[in-house]
UniProtKB/TrEMBL annotation:
Gene3D superfamilies: Periplasmic binding protein-like II, Winged helix-like DNA-binding domain superfamily/Winged helix DNA-binding domain. Belongs to the LysR transcriptional regulatory family. InterPro entries: HTH-type_LysR_regulators (IPR050950), LysR_HTH_N (IPR000847), LysR_subst-bd (IPR005119), WH-like_DNA-bd_sf (IPR036388), WH_DNA-bd_sf (IPR036390). Pfam families: HTH_1, LysR_substrate. PANTHER family: HTH-TYPE TRANSCRIPTIONAL REGULATOR YBHD (PTHR30419), NITROGEN ASSIMILATION TRANSCRIPTIONAL ACTIVATOR-RELATED (PTHR30419:SF8). One of its GO terms (molecular function) is DNA binding. Keywords: DNA-binding, Transcription, Transcription regulation. One of its GO terms (cellular component) is cytosol. Residues 5-62 form the HTH lysR-type domain. It comes from the Bacteria. This is HTH lysR-type domain-containing protein.
Length: 318
């Protein structure tokens, strides 16, 4: 684009196109007609072709003018949306979000810190819970957004899911587990087992894996997807736990827990955002969704993103 084109040129052009005449556009923009005509002339000169033809007392768009109008209108709309998203909230507000365990430790805390830095006037209320509970809350309008694993197809009526990244289900144990070097099947036969609860999305693929390895009758000693509970059980015993990678990402990075290779490609699933198809008109919700989308793309690209600190949040916005 010509470096001399300014936003005032674009706004002047769009106003003239909307009004159909210089005089009407000048009144609408509270400018003199010569000043508006000069802006139009400058724009046409920089684009290298006329945008309007005179028709009686009015102006009609040329073929080039119609093409430019479509792109110019979209560009101004996008700029205004971006400015609105970053504007400080004046009336405050509240956004209610449900997060599943797979995003509660790694993805969403970083998103929340960034959102808080940009929209300090809006309260971000975050709750966790089982998939079925959060889906019911979403349908009832009690939450505006759910972030986590993709719901079952049968549960998606009236809802929309946006994929962010793929995430593995891991078999994990404490560092120094006496059987950690053995094949997963042997570890599972000789270790206390912790499974996700029956209502958890990841329970079915885990059950399929156990059945495929002749362990369909294995009885867990505990069932949980809670990081605090599962981590405590692993560190205090020789138990092993099937859990989403995002839940234990920090513990793996620190070396407190280790992953035992399962060799199962199907032990993975889509993580993303679920919203009502009708949408929710909440100030700041579009920004929250975009921040979640941006970080999800980084995770999809393989970037290692762990639990942020306040310093991390500050640095990310400088």
């Amino acid at each position: 684009m010509h470096p001399g084109i300014k936003l005032r040129h674009i706004r002047a052009f769009l106003e003239i196109a909307d009004e159909g005449s210089l005089s009407a556009a000048a009144r609408a923009r509270r400018l003199t007609q010569p000043a508006l005509s000069r802006s139009l002339g400058e724009l046409e000169a920089m684009l290298g072709q006329p945008l309007f033809l005179r028709q009686g007392r009015g102006l009609a768009l040329t073929e080039a003018g119609r093409l430019f109008r479509r792109h110019a209108a979209a560009g101004v709309e996008a700029l205004e949306a971006g400015a609105a998203a970053l504007a400080p909230a004046t009336a405050g507000g509240r956004i209610d979000v449900g997060v599943l365990p797979t995003v509660a430790a790694r993805l969403f805390p970083r998103v929340a810190l960034r959102f808080g830095a940009l929209r300090a006037g809006i309260v971000l209320s975050v709750e966790t819970g089982p998939n079925t509970y959060l889906l019911r809350r979403l349908r009832d309008g009690a939450i505006d957004l759910m972030v986590g694993r993709m719901p079952e197809a049968a549960e998606m009526a009236g809802l929309t899911f946006e994929h962010l990244y793929e995430e593995e289900i891991l078999l994990c144990a404490r560092a120094g587990h006496p059987l950690a070097g053995l094949p997963a099947r042997d570890v599972l036969r000789r270790s206390p087992l912790i499974l996700p609860p029956a209502g958890a999305i990841i329970r079915r693929p885990v059950a399929d894996y156990l059945a495929a390895h002749g362990l369909g009758g294995a009885v867990p000693v505990f069932e949980t997807v809670s990081l605090a509970v599962g981590r405590g059980l692993l560190l205090g015993s020789d138990a092993v736990w099937f859990i989403s990678a995002g839940v234990i990402a920090e513990d793996l990075a620190r070396g407190d827990l280790v992953a035992i290779p399962t060799g199962a490609r199907f032990l993975s699933g889509s993580v993303g955002m679920t919203t009502r198809q009708a949408g929710a008109d909440r100030p700041g919700l579009d920004l929250l969704i975009q921040l979640t989308r941006d970080l999800g793309r980084r995770l999809q690209g393989g970037e290692r993103v762990l639990m942020p600190t306040v310093e991390d949040a500050d640095a990310s916005d400088r």
